[in-house]
Structures
1.
Amino acid sequence: MRIQRPNLVREATYDRLKRLIVGGRLLPGERLSEPALAETLGVSRTPVREALQRLAQEGLVELTPGKGARVRVLSPREVKEVYEVRALIEGEAAARAAERCSEEGVRRLEEALAELEGADPADYAAQIAADERFHAMLVAASGNRVLEQVFHDLDAALALTRQFSRDLNQSPETRAQHRAIVAAIRAGDAAAARAAAEAHVQAFKATVARRIQEAVWT
């Protein structure tokens, strides 16, 4: 037990910090103080330091000599590149789903969309969780597990953009875009499904990239 416990503490510290970043509790540009985080998490500074180093390797944290750590801020160019890849993935996934998705699969997509639209507007964490489930289910409906893996590989980068899309998750425009994707899949129209999915992601790309460009970081 004495051998395992330090490993458990390290893993728990890393997991908690990652969830705080991915869940939007620690925002892009926010400074990460080792002493403050250690006190908050109830651990020593060593597992915090190790967790920050791991998160830096994953691209979620920036470590700057003399300045310490902060949640990473993506550049507008990086945002555009991430969303361009996501548009390709979701467009292909939606097209494949339209060609192969069963009635039960379409029904599950519609239920996931209803859950997203019914999420409490004041509960941002619930909105994010519901949105992630809908999009993950959409990609899974493609039946292509490699496509799913590539989609999930973007999770860390997308987590760093969510601060700039909080008001978009349940906007009328976003709801209409989601409904268009599901409607095209239900109709079995692969071309329309691809176009709707790509248009949805491209709309987010433009807004998020502009907002990051306008933000001032110190």
2.
Amino acid sequence: MGTPPDFNGLTVASFESRMAEEMTNLITRHGGRPMVAPALREIPLENNAEALRFGEHLLAGRVDMLVLLTGVGTRALAEVLETRVSRKEMTAALRRVSLVARGPKPVAALKDLGLSATLTVPEPNTWRDIIHTLDAHKPVKGLRVAIQEYGVPNHELVEALKQRGAQVTRVPVYRWALPEDTGPLQRVLDAVAAGQVGVLLITNAAQIDHVMQVVEQGGRTDQFQRAVQRMVVASIGPTASERLRSHGLPVDLEPSHPKMGILVKEASEQAHRLLRKKRGTRNAE
């Protein structure tokens, strides 16, 4: 029997939050039965003390480099700074520093501000790619480097910069929390544990931490890990894959480019073949 051209009726789970509707539509379009429940809630900091302090240092000329990790975070940082200074003052100060963009989304956010990235980190945009780019084009020894953080701190990036002689300042702009209502997430996790899900799509490394937090709170870590071993796990890219493996979970495929649409398309094309291989059966149910 040939491999179906799409999910062909498989139940496909995702923990996407901001683009949950788009993910649902993509899974449906590629022949899957979507189970989409957010594992994340984006929380702006009530008191953006670190961001405002960064703004003071920026205006005073005490920042040499700003590493921008996300487009959303770049825009949020600009919004915080604009509560204290004009956009003209802010952009003038940013033009005096090296702006390092982790991929196209921060580049687009900078463009909206009338700014250009000094360096753009290539795919797959991991912290290691940031370091390799800096080592090759802009060594950081002796520089005052600020990092716009997203979700959870990237300790590896901070340490790698410090090891190279940089003076590093973290600038968290928003954090992740569990959804206020975890009922939909619990229902997806129940379906996974019951073996009712064929494919798991991961689009953000922080999703994994939150899923495992909920699983551990329910005392079901081993059960969940065993269930996931029999599923196809598709990860958006190396950062998410690294997080999956750190929790003892498999990674069966990464897309050719770290885009949600490509992730769903390529997962749909490979899901049945991978399921047969993992389950040792002729037909993936």
3.
Amino acid sequence: MRIFGPNATVAQDLEPEYVGIDADGKTAYVALQENNALAVVDIKSAKVRKIIALGFKDHSVAGNEFDASNKDDAINIQSWPVLGMYMPDAIATYSVSGAKGKGKKGKGKTKTYILTANEGDSRDYDGFGEEVRIKDLEEDEGKMLDPVVFPNAADLILEENLGRLKITNTLGDANDDGFIEELYAFGARSFSIWDDKGNLVWDSGSDFEWITANLIGADFSSTNDENDSFDNRSDDKGPEPEAVTVGEIDDRFYAFIGLERVGGIMMYDITDPKAPFFVTYVNNRDFSVADVTTPEAGDLGPEGIQFVSASDSPNGQPLIIVGNEVSGTTTVYEISPTL
């Protein structure tokens, strides 16, 4: 957990971002984005029961690769010696009934799971700023990569490698000796599923970058207010998972995740919280339009998603409604019952 505002108390430092409510309406889970944590709130008593630190994602592990540079003119998704702070924006909850046990019929106890869209966010104000590019550590912070931990530091700090990546200056030099032993980047470029105790159950890893690379490669890691911006956001949180919601369709649960920068909605089957799988990706954005301020450019910057069940839908089909921050548009998608 991060409490890092200058001279701040815990109460002053916490930044509530989003809230999800469990199925029985008794507990609220609150994203504390900049603090890399979740707060668990008892609704009836209006008391915070606990605060859960979310820890860090190891991008050196297979399956957690990412593209770190916007100056290499290429899609370069690979493992890096970087830790990602989950720092969720939107969160959602859903409940799953587990089996009672081997040889037993029926369903067991219902368990709540929490979904997080791991966007990442930094504090960058006139009086306090935590963002620094790895290549600028020595010039801006008077620090350098520890040569024991990073024997290839000279190569890592090149702009086409990790040099352009934005990290926090509030972590990494544990003994304050001027040598950075660990690199902490903003966000995890994924969505995660946690249990109600705050334990990580599943994470989408590097899926979002690989999927967008394969499906819209020429516009990979574009920003949300400019077309012809290939690879623009790789140094700074990548696709930025911003919005997330859950819907139940034909007794299966699905997660819908909005990518704030490159745009579009990811859909995953999360019926089994330990083994979700990718279903589809839809992006109602026209990357060929020169002027993104025109309606022809389509949807830019999905900010919020609302699921509408078939029973509540005006046409009898499940829907998602997406509010897009940059284009100012609202789009309704019908979910095919054949999925």
4.
Amino acid sequence: MTDMLVKLYALPPMPSIDATIHLRRGLAPEKHLVLDWVETHFSAYWRSECDVAFARQPVSCFLAIEDKQLIGFGCYDTTRRAFFGPTGVLESARGRGLGKALLLACLHDMYAQGYGYGIIGGVGPVEFYQKAVGATVIHDSTPGVYDGLLRKP
């Protein structure tokens, strides 16, 4: 999977989302709940990366919450500085613009932290990132920084 580059100084504004959804930065006391949720719904690898996001100051993990329940998350500065990800939205909550909102929350925060460019590592949906934030493919970026990642035997 390829990496993509985003100009953080040329981001679109935050999209509007359903008023029942609250988008905010994660808080340290809820770290254990978020990490358990990420592993349950996505993977242990993403849990590890999310753990790093909670160790940052400020926390570099954003949450989508509806009815006091976590329905999505997005992180940056986890495996590498200036990298966006991981990010995920519950399958039942997809199609409501949350993926784009979490992406933009993270990228706008990266810009506020002083980054000029962001990298989206190991991209699955290239077209989504091109359309959402004008990301461009970084040629010859496969396998990228995840090459040699330890896996369970």
